Amino acid sequence: MRVGILTSGGDCQALNATMRGVAKALYKMFEDVEIVGFDDGYKGLIYADYRIMQPNDFSGILTKGGTILGTSRQPFKLMRVPDENGLDKVEAMKHTYRKLKLECLVVLGGNGSQKTANLLREEGLNIVSLPKTIDNDLWGTDMTFGFQSAADIATNAIDCIHTTAASHGRVFIVEVMGHKTGWLTLHAGLAGGADIILLPEIPYDMDIVVNAIRSRSKQGKGFSILAVAEGAISREDSLLSKREFKEKKKSGLVYPSIAYEIGAQITERTGQEVRVTVPGHMQRGGEPCPCDRVLSSRMGAAAAVLIRKKKYGYMVAIRNDELTEVPLEEVAGKLKTVDPNSSIIREAKMIGISFGDE
Ligand code: F6P
User: Fold this and answer.
1) Cα(135) to centroid of ligand 1, in Å?
2) Catalytic residues
3) Strand pairing report for 50-53 and 104-109
Protein backbone atom coordinates (compact mmCIF):
# COMPACT_ATOMS: atom_id res chain seq x y z
CA MET A 1 0.00 0.00 0.00
CA ARG A 2 1.29 3.44 -0.91
CA VAL A 3 0.43 6.59 0.99
CA GLY A 4 1.40 10.04 -0.31
CA ILE A 5 2.23 12.87 2.07
CA LEU A 6 2.91 16.57 1.62
CA THR A 7 3.29 19.74 3.67
CA SER A 8 1.70 22.82 2.14
CA GLY A 9 1.57 26.59 2.73
CA GLY A 10 3.52 28.56 5.34
CA ASP A 11 5.57 26.25 7.53
CA CYS A 12 5.35 25.88 11.29
CA GLN A 13 7.28 24.17 14.04
CA ALA A 14 5.46 20.85 14.33
CA LEU A 15 5.20 19.69 10.71
CA ASN A 16 7.95 17.09 11.11
CA ALA A 17 6.58 15.94 14.46
CA THR A 18 3.19 15.36 12.81
CA MET A 19 4.62 13.49 9.82
CA ARG A 20 6.60 11.35 12.25
CA GLY A 21 3.36 10.55 14.09
CA VAL A 22 1.61 9.55 10.85
CA ALA A 23 4.56 7.46 9.65
CA LYS A 24 5.27 5.65 12.91
CA ALA A 25 1.61 4.69 13.30
CA LEU A 26 1.34 3.57 9.66
CA TYR A 27 4.51 1.45 9.82
CA LYS A 28 3.14 -0.17 12.98
CA MET A 29 -0.33 -0.81 11.51
CA PHE A 30 0.66 -2.10 8.07
CA GLU A 31 3.53 -4.40 7.15
CA ASP A 32 3.59 -3.41 3.52
CA VAL A 33 3.14 0.36 3.64
CA GLU A 34 5.31 2.63 1.51
CA ILE A 35 5.22 6.38 2.11
CA VAL A 36 5.75 8.73 -0.82
CA GLY A 37 6.88 12.22 0.20
CA PHE A 38 6.13 15.07 -2.23
CA ASP A 39 8.59 17.97 -2.38
CA ASP A 40 7.42 21.52 -1.65
CA GLY A 41 3.73 20.86 -1.09
CA TYR A 42 1.23 20.60 -3.95
CA LYS A 43 4.02 21.64 -6.32
CA GLY A 44 5.58 18.19 -5.88
CA LEU A 45 2.24 16.54 -6.65
CA ILE A 46 1.70 18.72 -9.73
CA TYR A 47 5.18 18.17 -11.19
CA ALA A 48 5.70 14.63 -9.83
CA ASP A 49 8.65 15.57 -7.64
CA TYR A 50 8.66 12.93 -4.94
CA ARG A 51 10.78 10.48 -3.04
CA ILE A 52 10.05 7.13 -1.50
CA MET A 53 10.54 7.66 2.21
CA GLN A 54 12.26 5.16 4.48
CA PRO A 55 11.26 4.58 8.11
CA ASN A 56 14.56 6.15 9.12
CA ASP A 57 13.58 9.44 7.43
CA PHE A 58 11.01 9.88 10.16
CA SER A 59 13.41 9.22 13.04
CA GLY A 60 14.98 12.03 15.01
CA ILE A 61 12.62 14.68 13.64
CA LEU A 62 10.23 15.11 16.56
CA THR A 63 12.04 18.23 17.71
CA LYS A 64 13.10 19.52 14.30
CA GLY A 65 11.37 22.70 13.06
CA GLY A 66 10.50 23.37 9.41
CA THR A 67 9.60 20.45 7.15
CA ILE A 68 11.86 17.72 5.79
CA LEU A 69 9.74 17.71 2.61
CA GLY A 70 9.85 21.45 1.97
CA THR A 71 6.73 23.51 1.36
CA SER A 72 5.39 26.21 -0.94
CA ARG A 73 2.35 28.39 -1.31
CA GLN A 74 0.18 27.28 -4.24
CA PRO A 75 -2.80 29.65 -3.99
CA PHE A 76 -6.14 27.86 -4.16
CA LYS A 77 -7.59 30.51 -6.46
CA LEU A 78 -4.91 29.67 -9.06
CA MET A 79 -5.40 25.90 -8.90
CA ARG A 80 -7.81 25.95 -11.83
CA VAL A 81 -5.56 28.34 -13.79
CA PRO A 82 -3.06 26.54 -16.05
CA ASP A 83 0.65 27.11 -15.29
CA GLU A 84 2.97 29.13 -17.58
CA ASN A 85 3.30 26.10 -19.88
CA GLY A 86 -0.43 25.55 -20.08
CA LEU A 87 -0.41 22.59 -17.67
CA ASP A 88 -3.74 21.83 -16.00
CA LYS A 89 -2.61 21.60 -12.36
CA VAL A 90 -5.60 19.66 -11.07
CA GLU A 91 -5.35 17.07 -13.84
CA ALA A 92 -1.58 16.87 -13.24
CA MET A 93 -2.11 16.16 -9.52
CA LYS A 94 -4.66 13.47 -10.31
CA HIS A 95 -2.28 11.97 -12.84
CA THR A 96 0.62 11.79 -10.36
CA TYR A 97 -1.65 10.27 -7.71
CA ARG A 98 -2.90 7.60 -10.12
CA LYS A 99 0.48 6.91 -11.69
CA LEU A 100 1.91 6.19 -8.22
CA LYS A 101 -1.15 4.07 -7.38
CA LEU A 102 -1.62 5.86 -4.09
CA GLU A 103 -4.15 4.53 -1.63
CA CYS A 104 -4.55 8.05 -0.30
CA LEU A 105 -2.88 11.44 0.13
CA VAL A 106 -2.12 12.97 3.53
CA VAL A 107 -2.07 16.78 3.46
CA LEU A 108 -0.63 18.89 6.27
CA GLY A 109 -1.84 22.41 5.69
CA GLY A 110 -3.68 25.57 6.68
CA ASN A 111 -6.72 27.25 5.18
CA GLY A 112 -5.79 27.45 1.51
CA SER A 113 -4.30 23.95 1.58
CA GLN A 114 -7.49 22.52 3.10
CA LYS A 115 -9.47 24.09 0.25
CA THR A 116 -7.24 22.38 -2.30
CA ALA A 117 -7.49 19.13 -0.32
CA ASN A 118 -11.26 19.40 -0.59
CA LEU A 119 -11.02 20.10 -4.31
CA LEU A 120 -8.97 16.93 -4.76
CA ARG A 121 -11.55 15.03 -2.71
CA GLU A 122 -14.26 16.32 -5.04
CA GLU A 123 -12.13 15.10 -7.93
CA GLY A 124 -12.23 11.59 -6.48
CA LEU A 125 -8.93 11.34 -4.58
CA ASN A 126 -8.75 9.75 -1.12
CA ILE A 127 -7.65 12.52 1.22
CA VAL A 128 -6.79 12.73 4.91
CA SER A 129 -5.73 16.17 6.10
CA LEU A 130 -4.14 17.56 9.24
CA PRO A 131 -4.63 21.07 10.67
CA LYS A 132 -1.40 23.04 10.46
CA THR A 133 -1.02 26.74 11.19
CA ILE A 134 0.42 29.08 13.76
CA ASP A 135 -2.78 31.13 13.30
CA ASN A 136 -5.05 28.51 14.95
CA ASP A 137 -7.81 29.65 12.61
CA LEU A 138 -8.95 26.38 11.06
CA TRP A 139 -12.62 25.76 11.50
CA GLY A 140 -13.65 22.50 13.19
CA THR A 141 -10.69 22.01 15.53
CA ASP A 142 -10.03 23.55 18.93
CA MET A 143 -6.32 23.71 18.16
CA THR A 144 -3.97 23.53 15.20
CA PHE A 145 -0.41 22.31 15.52
CA GLY A 146 2.18 25.08 15.36
CA PHE A 147 0.03 27.53 17.29
CA GLN A 148 1.36 26.82 20.77
CA SER A 149 5.01 26.97 19.66
CA ALA A 150 4.42 30.29 17.91
CA ALA A 151 2.56 31.59 20.98
CA ASP A 152 5.64 30.73 23.07
CA ILE A 153 7.89 32.76 20.77
CA ALA A 154 5.57 35.74 20.52
CA THR A 155 5.15 35.68 24.31
CA ASN A 156 8.89 35.59 24.74
CA ALA A 157 9.19 38.65 22.49
CA ILE A 158 6.74 40.55 24.70
CA ASP A 159 8.55 39.33 27.84
CA CYS A 160 11.84 40.70 26.52
CA ILE A 161 10.22 44.00 25.61
CA HIS A 162 8.77 44.26 29.13
CA THR A 163 12.12 44.70 30.83
CA THR A 164 13.38 47.32 28.41
CA ALA A 165 10.02 49.10 28.34
CA ALA A 166 10.09 49.43 32.11
CA SER A 167 13.60 50.93 32.04
CA HIS A 168 12.83 53.53 29.40
CA GLY A 169 9.25 54.49 30.03
CA ARG A 170 8.23 54.29 26.40
CA VAL A 171 5.32 52.84 24.49
CA PHE A 172 6.24 49.56 22.82
CA ILE A 173 4.30 47.79 20.11
CA VAL A 174 4.89 44.11 19.34
CA GLU A 175 3.35 43.08 16.03
CA VAL A 176 2.24 39.46 16.10
CA MET A 177 1.48 37.30 13.02
CA GLY A 178 -2.12 36.84 11.97
CA HIS A 179 -3.67 38.77 9.10
CA LYS A 180 -7.20 37.49 9.38
CA THR A 181 -7.48 36.24 12.94
CA GLY A 182 -6.06 37.29 16.27
CA TRP A 183 -5.64 34.02 18.21
CA LEU A 184 -1.87 34.29 18.37
CA THR A 185 -1.92 37.94 19.40
CA LEU A 186 -4.61 37.28 22.00
CA HIS A 187 -2.74 34.39 23.61
CA ALA A 188 0.71 35.98 23.43
CA GLY A 189 -0.71 39.31 24.62
CA LEU A 190 -2.39 37.70 27.62
CA ALA A 191 0.60 35.49 28.43
CA GLY A 192 3.03 38.38 28.04
CA GLY A 193 0.98 40.83 30.10
CA ALA A 194 0.30 43.32 27.29
CA ASP A 195 -1.71 46.36 28.34
CA ILE A 196 -3.50 46.77 25.03
CA ILE A 197 -4.32 44.00 22.54
CA LEU A 198 -5.56 44.84 19.06
CA LEU A 199 -7.11 42.09 16.93
CA PRO A 200 -8.60 41.94 13.42
CA GLU A 201 -11.89 40.74 14.95
CA ILE A 202 -12.25 43.79 17.25
CA PRO A 203 -11.79 47.01 15.26
CA TYR A 204 -10.08 49.59 17.46
CA ASP A 205 -10.90 53.22 18.10
CA MET A 206 -7.69 55.28 18.28
CA ASP A 207 -9.21 57.63 20.88
CA ILE A 208 -9.78 54.64 23.17
CA VAL A 209 -6.26 53.30 22.59
CA VAL A 210 -4.76 56.71 23.39
CA ASN A 211 -6.96 57.06 26.50
CA ALA A 212 -5.78 53.67 27.75
CA ILE A 213 -2.14 54.80 27.40
CA ARG A 214 -2.87 58.16 29.09
CA SER A 215 -4.69 56.50 31.95
CA ARG A 216 -1.66 54.27 32.57
CA SER A 217 0.58 57.34 32.63
CA LYS A 218 -1.77 59.00 35.13
CA GLN A 219 -1.46 55.95 37.38
CA GLY A 220 2.29 56.51 37.34
CA LYS A 221 2.97 53.66 34.94
CA GLY A 222 5.67 55.00 32.70
CA PHE A 223 5.36 52.47 29.91
CA SER A 224 2.71 50.64 27.93
CA ILE A 225 2.93 47.52 25.81
CA LEU A 226 0.64 46.87 22.88
CA ALA A 227 0.31 43.46 21.23
CA VAL A 228 -1.00 44.21 17.76
CA ALA A 229 -2.03 41.60 15.18
CA GLU A 230 -0.76 42.05 11.61
CA GLY A 231 -4.38 42.37 10.55
CA ALA A 232 -5.56 44.78 13.29
CA ILE A 233 -7.91 47.34 11.81
CA SER A 234 -9.36 50.66 12.97
CA ARG A 235 -13.09 51.07 13.39
CA GLU A 236 -13.30 53.54 10.52
CA ASP A 237 -11.31 51.29 8.16
CA SER A 238 -13.46 48.30 9.09
CA LEU A 239 -16.46 50.14 7.65
CA LEU A 240 -14.82 50.48 4.23
CA SER A 241 -15.28 47.99 1.41
CA LYS A 242 -12.20 45.97 0.43
CA ARG A 243 -11.65 48.19 -2.59
CA GLU A 244 -12.08 51.45 -0.63
CA PHE A 245 -9.64 50.15 1.98
CA LYS A 246 -7.02 49.36 -0.68
CA GLU A 247 -7.51 52.80 -2.27
CA LYS A 248 -7.10 54.50 1.12
CA LYS A 249 -3.87 52.62 1.80
CA LYS A 250 -2.49 53.62 -1.58
CA SER A 251 -3.39 57.28 -1.22
CA GLY A 252 -2.21 57.82 2.37
CA LEU A 253 1.18 57.65 4.05
CA VAL A 254 2.51 54.15 3.50
CA TYR A 255 3.80 52.45 6.64
CA PRO A 256 5.68 49.14 6.56
CA SER A 257 2.85 47.59 8.60
CA ILE A 258 -0.06 48.40 10.91
CA ALA A 259 2.14 48.57 14.04
CA TYR A 260 4.10 51.47 12.53
CA GLU A 261 0.91 53.27 11.57
CA ILE A 262 -0.51 52.92 15.09
CA GLY A 263 2.87 53.94 16.55
CA ALA A 264 2.94 57.15 14.50
CA GLN A 265 -0.59 58.02 15.63
CA ILE A 266 0.28 57.43 19.29
CA THR A 267 3.34 59.72 19.08
CA GLU A 268 1.32 62.39 17.29
CA ARG A 269 -1.43 62.36 19.89
CA THR A 270 0.49 61.78 23.12
CA GLY A 271 3.98 63.00 22.36
CA GLN A 272 5.28 59.71 23.79
CA GLU A 273 8.20 57.86 22.24
CA VAL A 274 7.11 54.66 20.54
CA ARG A 275 9.18 51.66 19.48
CA VAL A 276 7.94 48.87 17.25
CA THR A 277 9.14 45.24 17.31
CA VAL A 278 8.12 42.78 14.62
CA PRO A 279 9.24 39.21 15.46
CA GLY A 280 7.91 38.13 12.02
CA HIS A 281 8.92 34.70 10.80
CA MET A 282 10.79 33.96 14.01
CA GLN A 283 7.31 33.00 15.19
CA ARG A 284 7.27 30.07 12.79
CA GLY A 285 10.83 28.97 13.50
CA GLY A 286 12.73 26.76 15.92
CA GLU A 287 11.65 23.64 17.74
CA PRO A 288 8.05 22.70 18.46
CA CYS A 289 7.14 23.21 22.12
CA PRO A 290 6.14 20.16 24.22
CA CYS A 291 2.39 20.87 23.83
CA ASP A 292 2.76 20.84 20.04
CA ARG A 293 4.84 17.66 20.11
CA VAL A 294 2.06 15.94 22.03
CA LEU A 295 -0.69 17.31 19.79
CA SER A 296 1.19 16.42 16.61
CA SER A 297 1.97 12.89 17.72
CA ARG A 298 -1.68 12.33 18.63
CA MET A 299 -2.95 13.86 15.40
CA GLY A 300 -0.50 11.83 13.34
CA ALA A 301 -1.73 8.61 14.94
CA ALA A 302 -5.34 9.68 14.37
CA ALA A 303 -4.62 10.22 10.66
CA ALA A 304 -3.25 6.67 10.42
CA VAL A 305 -6.43 5.34 12.05
CA LEU A 306 -8.52 7.09 9.37
CA ILE A 307 -6.38 5.41 6.70
CA ARG A 308 -6.79 2.02 8.35
CA LYS A 309 -10.57 2.55 8.36
CA LYS A 310 -10.43 3.89 4.77
CA LYS A 311 -12.34 6.88 6.09
CA TYR A 312 -11.37 9.51 3.55
CA GLY A 313 -12.32 13.14 2.95
CA TYR A 314 -11.75 14.26 6.53
CA MET A 315 -9.48 16.60 8.46
CA VAL A 316 -8.17 15.35 11.80
CA ALA A 317 -9.31 17.64 14.63
CA ILE A 318 -9.17 17.91 18.39
CA ARG A 319 -12.21 18.82 20.43
CA ASN A 320 -12.38 18.81 24.22
CA ASP A 321 -9.04 16.98 24.22
CA GLU A 322 -10.46 14.10 22.14
CA LEU A 323 -9.16 13.38 18.66
CA THR A 324 -11.90 13.36 16.04
CA GLU A 325 -12.38 14.21 12.37
CA VAL A 326 -14.35 16.81 10.42
CA PRO A 327 -15.57 16.44 6.80
CA LEU A 328 -13.30 18.45 4.50
CA GLU A 329 -16.27 20.02 2.78
CA GLU A 330 -17.23 21.59 6.14
CA VAL A 331 -13.71 22.86 6.84
CA ALA A 332 -12.88 24.26 3.41
CA GLY A 333 -13.18 28.02 3.16
CA LYS A 334 -14.29 28.57 6.77
CA LEU A 335 -12.24 30.53 9.30
CA LYS A 336 -12.33 30.10 13.06
CA THR A 337 -12.18 33.65 14.34
CA VAL A 338 -11.97 35.14 17.83
CA ASP A 339 -15.47 35.91 19.06
CA PRO A 340 -15.41 39.43 20.56
CA ASN A 341 -18.05 38.26 23.07
CA SER A 342 -16.24 35.10 24.13
CA SER A 343 -15.27 34.48 27.73
CA ILE A 344 -11.52 34.81 27.07
CA ILE A 345 -12.07 38.39 25.85
CA ARG A 346 -14.35 39.17 28.81
CA GLU A 347 -11.78 37.78 31.26
CA ALA A 348 -8.95 39.71 29.63
CA LYS A 349 -11.01 42.90 29.95
CA MET A 350 -11.71 42.10 33.61
CA ILE A 351 -7.99 42.20 34.33
CA GLY A 352 -7.70 45.61 32.72
CA ILE A 353 -6.57 44.80 29.16
CA SER A 354 -7.92 47.23 26.59
CA PHE A 355 -8.94 45.97 23.15
CA GLY A 356 -9.39 49.51 21.93
CA ASP A 357 -13.14 49.10 21.64
CA GLU A 358 -14.66 50.39 24.87
O1 F6P B 1 -0.58 31.60 7.94
C2 F6P B 1 0.60 31.62 8.66
C3 F6P B 1 1.29 32.95 8.54
O4 F6P B 1 2.49 32.87 9.29
C5 F6P B 1 0.48 34.15 8.96
O6 F6P B 1 0.38 34.34 10.35
C7 F6P B 1 1.24 35.26 8.27
O8 F6P B 1 0.41 36.38 8.08
C9 F6P B 1 1.61 34.62 6.97
O10 F6P B 1 1.64 33.22 7.20
C11 F6P B 1 2.94 35.05 6.41
O12 F6P B 1 3.11 34.43 5.18
P13 F6P B 1 4.46 34.34 4.37
O14 F6P B 1 5.36 33.37 5.05
O15 F6P B 1 4.05 33.87 3.02
O16 F6P B 1 5.05 35.72 4.37
Assistant:
1) 8
2) 135
3) unpaired
